[in-house]
């Protein structure tokens, strides 16, 4: 049964999203019309959900007051005694709703302490007072360990008799992998590498030859309704000795406690141990299934459509299991990745929602790595660099096996010119996850950004050879080649290339793409390049890296990575770059932390002195211009 049905007009969808996030954070199940299955009639689903809801929140606005749909839904709720009303503008409510109490939430930005929202929440709580407390997720806590063993968790065989439920056995295997990997000092090979071994390919000799694993965890999963049977075996690859094996028959509601139990048994077998989880609890089987579906969708190679579906699945997960910390954390991070790259305008309704979801995750589990990364993504571009890196590092430390977290952490380092550290993070990721073409491709590009063109091309060619069926390594190799050859390719026609570049810049206005500015500088038009960049900063126009192909790109939060890519090397080589660094808040970070960008030692001018001199001019910060 749905706890709360939200009725609203399309223009107030941002407020509906905020309300849904706030109510879910309070532990309520929420439904709004973005969850209608494609194969069911629109009106039938709405009526079914509306009449089943224990509370109906109507968001009144000028458009809603004129909407027959909203008025009809409000009337059903009024007659059923489930109506709760909030107003988000100064429009008058139609009769008879104008005679019923309505909370004033004009200007509400998702803050729980808002007086109007508190009235809404109190009314809904009173209607849902009999709702039982849901149980939640369990996670093992990290503990320092030995680092001389390398574990490969293979995908457990699906014995459920339905090939279409393979995501479930893979998901359970991955969750066990993540639980084990949270033990510091115990190295665990990433999913993209170890999950390539299936069926007859699960030969110890092959796993050792390709991954170098010292130990293998393999098993099977059989699901029957809400019961689950997991068989697992830990093998020493040198002696082929089985160090431990066990079979578990449990209710699916015990899955998290079971994951901890398996992890503890592995740790004991490896002469180590885990700290017990802070709490153990049950989970709704349907919620867990939705959670695994969401992870499977994201792992496919996420387009914007896939990311939206992933978010939708996780919203349904937390609606069923409001104490499922990792689901909240993943929801916040994946939604954070959907923040617009080029403008904050469309992000106005996303940011408060991400914040609510991340804080809910951390309230349940302070060591939820994806939630820390979600908060890092919320920090606006060109400012807050130290806090963003702190949160991202915390997320990476807590979730080293979550490749998305590691990729974003490396991006945060690149965004302040700490290119070599970013490369080190990617080297760690690839060492743990040699079977990921995406990680290998991006690793090559990060080495290119650090100025190691030869090394980057070598890594890119190795990735292409290792993954001939994947397009991503080849794409990154070609990008590196084009970047390295750009100036030479246009040496005889720089003027014509600059004309084409000017046309692109005009076509993409008002966004200023740093790649375009960097290309102009590479062509020798330094005065023009700095003029374009200066105009964009003074006018508070959005700055962005060049539009990336559809896929898992960096959010606008990490837009400053473009300044430290090879394409902007000519800009950085000019002393005028110091003024840009001051206005974009980079100098504030470098001076405060005492950590200067890698390229500073290779410049013909003193970057520190040039920045100090530019700062004395009292240049306004770009972030301040953007905000006001």
How would you sum up this structure, described in words?
- This protein has 628 residues and is of the alpha/beta class.
- The chain folds into four domains: 124 residues, 3-Layer(aba) Sandwich (Rossmann fold), CATH 3.40.50.10140; 120 residues, Rossmann fold (3-Layer(aba) Sandwich); 186 residues, Alpha Horseshoe (Serine Threonine Protein Phosphatase 5, Tetratricopeptide repeat); 138 residues, no CATH class.
- Helices cover 51% and strands 10% of the residues.
- It has 28 helices and 13 strands.
- A hairpin with a 5-residue loop joins β10 and β11.
- It is flat and about 75 Å long.
The helix content, as a percent range, equals 40-55%
Q: Work out the radius of gyration.
A: 27 Å
CATH superfamily of the largest domain: Tetratricopeptide repeat domain
* Shape verdict: flat
Mean pLDDT rating: 80
CATH architecture of the largest domain: Alpha Horseshoe
What kind of sheet is the major sheet? 6 strands, mixed
CATH class label of the largest domain:
Mainly Alpha
Give the amount of beta strand, in percent: 5-15%
Terminal CA distance: 45 Å
Count of alpha and pi helical runs: 28
Q: Work out the count of structural domains.
A: 4
The name CATH uses for the topology of the largest domain is: Serine Threonine Protein Phosphatase 5, Tetratricopeptide repeat
Low-confidence stretches: 35-42, 131-147, 272-280, 341-346, 487-492, 548-554
Strand segment tally? 13
The computed structural class is alpha/beta
């Amino acid at each position: 049964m749905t706890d709360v049905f939200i009725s609203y007009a399309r223009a107030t969808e941002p407020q509906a999203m905020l309300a849904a996030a706030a109510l879910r954070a309070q532990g309520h199940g929420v439904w709004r019309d973005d969850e209608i299955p494609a194969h069911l009639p629109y009106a039938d689903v709405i009526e079914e959900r509306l009449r089943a809801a224990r509370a109906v929140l109507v968001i009144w606005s000028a458009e809603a007051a004129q909407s027959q749909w909203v008025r009809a839904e409000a009337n059903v709720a009024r007659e059923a005694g489930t109506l709760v009303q909030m107003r988000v503008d100064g429009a008058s409510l139609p009769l008879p709703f104008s005679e019923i109490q309505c909370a004033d939430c004009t200007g509400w930005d998702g803050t729980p302490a808002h007086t109007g929202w508190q009235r809404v929440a109190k009314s809904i709580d009173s209607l849902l007072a009999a709702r039982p407390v849901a149980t939640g997720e369990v996670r093992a806590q990290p503990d320092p360990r030995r680092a001389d063993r390398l574990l490969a968790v293979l995908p457990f065989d699906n014995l459920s008799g339905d090939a279409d439920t393979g995501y479930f056995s893979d998901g359970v295997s991955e969750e066990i992998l993540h639980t084990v990997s949270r033990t510091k000092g115990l190295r665990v090979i990433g999913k993209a590498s170890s999950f390539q071994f299936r069926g007859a390919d699960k030969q110890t000799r092959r796993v050792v030859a390709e991954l170098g694993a010292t130990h293998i965890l393999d098993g099977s999963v059989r699901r029957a309704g809400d019961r689950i049977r997991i068989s697992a075996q830990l093998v020493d690859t040198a002696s082929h000795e089985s160090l431990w094996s066990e079979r578990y028959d449990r209710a699916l509601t015990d899955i998290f406690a079971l994951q901890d139990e398996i992890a503890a048994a592995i740790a004991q077998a490896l002469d180590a141990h885990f700290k017990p989880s802070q709490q153990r609890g049950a989970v709704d089987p349907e919620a867990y299934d939705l959670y695994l579906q969401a992870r499977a969708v994201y792992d496919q190679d996420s387009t914007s459509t896939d990311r939206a579906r992933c978010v939708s699945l996780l919203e349904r997960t937390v609606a069923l299991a409001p104490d499922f910390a990792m689901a909240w954390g993943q929801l916040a991070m994946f939604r954070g990745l959907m923040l617009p790259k080029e403008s904050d305008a469309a992000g106005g309704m996303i940011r408060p929602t991400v914040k609510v979801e991340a804080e809910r995750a951390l309230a349940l589990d302070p060591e939820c790595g994806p939630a820390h990364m979600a908060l890092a993504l919320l920090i606006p571009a060109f400012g807050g660099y130290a806090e963003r890196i702190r949160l991202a590092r915390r997320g990476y430390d807590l979730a080293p096996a979550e490749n998305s977290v590691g990729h974003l952490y490396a991006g945060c380092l690149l965004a302040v010119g700490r290119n070599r550290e970013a490369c080190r993070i990617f080297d760690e990721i690839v060492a743990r996850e040699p079977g990921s073409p995406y990680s290998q491709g991006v690793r090559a590009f990060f080495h290119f950004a650090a100025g190691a063109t030869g090394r980057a091309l070598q890594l890119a060619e190795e990735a292409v050879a290792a993954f001939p069926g994947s397009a991503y390594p080849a794409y990154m190799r070609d990008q590196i080649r084009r970047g390295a050859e750009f100036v030479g390719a246009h040496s005889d026609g720089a003027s014509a290339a600059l004309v084409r570049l000017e046309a692109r810049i005009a076509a993409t206005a008002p966004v200023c793409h740093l790649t375009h500015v960097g290309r102009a500088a590479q062509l020798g038009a330094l005065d023009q390049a700095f003029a374009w960049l200066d105009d964009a900063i003074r006018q508070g126009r959005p700055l962005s890296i060049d539009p990336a192909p559809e896929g898992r790109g960096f959010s606008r939060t990490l837009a400053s990575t473009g300044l430290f890519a090879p394409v902007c090397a000519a800009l950085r080589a000019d002393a005028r770059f110091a003024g840009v660094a001051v206005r974009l808040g980079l100098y504030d970070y470098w001076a405060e932390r005492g950590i200067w960008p890698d390229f500073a030692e290779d410049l013909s001018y003193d970057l520190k002195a040039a920045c100090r001199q530019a700062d004395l001019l009292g240049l306004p910060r770009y972030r301040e211009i953007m905000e006001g």
